[in-house]
Amino acid sequence: MHIHHISRQNSVLNTFLSEIRDVHTQKDPLRFRKNIERIGEILGYEMSKTLNFQKSTTKTPLGNSSVQLISENLVLCSILRAGIPLHNGLLNYFDRAENAFISAYRQHDEDSNTFKILVEYLACPDLNGKTLVLADPMLATGQSLVSTFEALKPYGIPKKTNIVSIIGSKKGVAFVNDYFDKNTDLWIAAIDNDLNEKGYIVPGLGDAGDLAFGEKLQQ
What we know:
This protein is an alpha/beta fold. The chain has helices at residues 13-21, 29-48, 83-93, 143-152, 170-179, 208-213; strands at 2-5, 53-60, 63-70, 74-80, 98-108, 115-123, 131-135, 138-139, 160-169, 184-192, 194-195, 201-202.
């Protein structure tokens, strides 16, 4: 797997990363969601440089203009619910892409920090021969991404897979690196060192879904 760690090079991305991590800025859910969306746009732009293009001609009022346009059929697949703002950012740039959505969430064992990933909802187009973009804002353990990819297999074999994440842990990145083949690219804004005993990224930013949409009841 090819890992593209985007924040290694200084850019405005650092501003958005800083704000989504900041405990004071996090009190504004609208700004939190908007910054997630902005980061999605930046990661999508960086990813676009590696896609296939073909020559096209555009007719203007004064003549014709030649331009290289993306020629790949993209499918954006996001993990609900935290993935929605990230998905919107990608869709802002790849507005003609097909879309898939999956609910993959942690079910914790009673009185334990261990958990398993449950997939209960999936809507997906045909993936055969297309470029799949898996969007998951927090790459903590990597188990959600692997469970998602496994659940998508009945829908066809993509020719290429890209993973888009905002913050990951070194352990999670290593886990997906071992699972996905060498034709996979990971586009990630930041990689943090640790996971805590509950499987959350440290320093991370907390629960992205709760910060974006409000705290959920635990069942």
